[in-house]
Amino acid sequence: MTPHEYFAPQPTSTRDLPDPAPLLRSLTQGVLEALAGVREVDQLARWFSEDAYRSLVTRANLSARARSARGVAPARPTFQIVSLRVAEPRDGVIEAVVVVAGPGRTRAVAVRLDGFDRRWRATSLAIL
Questions:
Q1: CA 64 to chain CA centroid, nearest Å
Q2: What one-character-per-residue DSSP string does 16-43 give?
Q3: For the segment 15-62, what is each residue's pLDDT rounded down to a tens digit?
């Protein structure tokens, strides 16, 4: 094993990882609050892979610019998690859909979690 491989994130089996449901709920709430401008995106960094985090930062910046152009102040979003569906396509990988109902509409948040170094990390996130 090369030093790069040794110090790189190590895949972890699903049986060695915690239940993903609480993390999925917290990530969904955190992402929606970050996009609404009431939470710093940096608070979510430890739970995302580098690429997924960059995408989230870009989307949060675009949301902030849109709010600024309309002259709308950031406001805490009100929503309720309606359902949570989880699938395990392979060991150490979870793909989930969190359905969120807000006052204006219902949305789906698709999340892929990969197990690295004995914890879950979001490697992909999409708000539909």
A1: 18
A2: GS--HHHHHHHHHHHHHHHHHTSS-GGG
A3: 999 999 999 999 999 999 999 999 999 999 999 999 999 999 999 999
Cβ contact 41:60 at 8 Å: yes
Provide the greatest CA pair distance for the chain: 55
Mapped onto helix, strand or coil, the DSSP state of residue 87 is strand
CB 97 within 8 A of CB 85: yes
Count other C-beta atoms under 10 Å from residue 60's C-beta: 19
- pTM value is 0.90
Please give the structure tokens belonging to residue 77.
């979003």
Q: What is the DSSP letter of 77?
A: -
Q: Taking a C-beta distance cutoff of 8 angstroms, is the pair 57, 68 a contact?
A: no
CB atoms under 10 Å from CB of 31, counted, come to 25
Q: How many residues does the chain have?
A: 128
Q: Which residues of 16-29 are buried (b: 16+ CB within 10 A; e: fewer)?
A: ebeebeebbeebbb
